[in-house]
Amino acid sequence: xxxxxxxxxxxxxxxxxxxxxxxxxxxxxxxxxxxxxxxxxxxxxxxxxxxxxxxxxxxxxxxxxxxxxxxxxxxxxxxxxxxxxxxxxxxxxxxxxxxxxxxxxxxxxxxxxxxxxxxxxxxxxxxxxxxxxxxxxxxxxxxxxxxxxxxxxxxxxxxxxxxxxxxxxxxxxxxxxxxxxxxxxxxxxxxxxxxxxxxxxxxxxx
Length: 206
Known about the structure:
3-stranded antiparallel β-sheet, two-stranded antiparallel sheet, 7 helices
């Protein structure tokens, strides 16, 4: 099967039977093999969260037996949804907007991973809800700006979108060194995140 990622790029493999087969290869292409191999060489607890998911994903695949037609069937686990969901979000962004190298670099940076990962989730929801996204210029450091703007294809109404996700020590690569509280403080830094978002100038409805 062929999968169109954007207007100029087609992906193909004789090994693909289902769309998740493409996703499994696509995320490796986006993140680059050299980076992945360097992470795999580390002890599992020191690896980037994406590569910890990858390890669990491989174990999940190996735990299932092949059927007579050569396919596999299994109930997906949380880590499978995380890993393939990330791949799908990257595909959606590339297919509908653009996938900037700067954004991929943020994903691969352990300290910036959580923020970039959450922005992808928000973008996914808006794209599937029928919004056209426009990314902001991340190279412009002279002023603060939102993650992206979203225009409804039905009404034409434009919204200013800022994504904030609180950090929890031990999750998504965050530690106490990042100022992340433990799980016993569920609303910690909530006001801080809201205030930071509201301080950014918005030309459109938030």
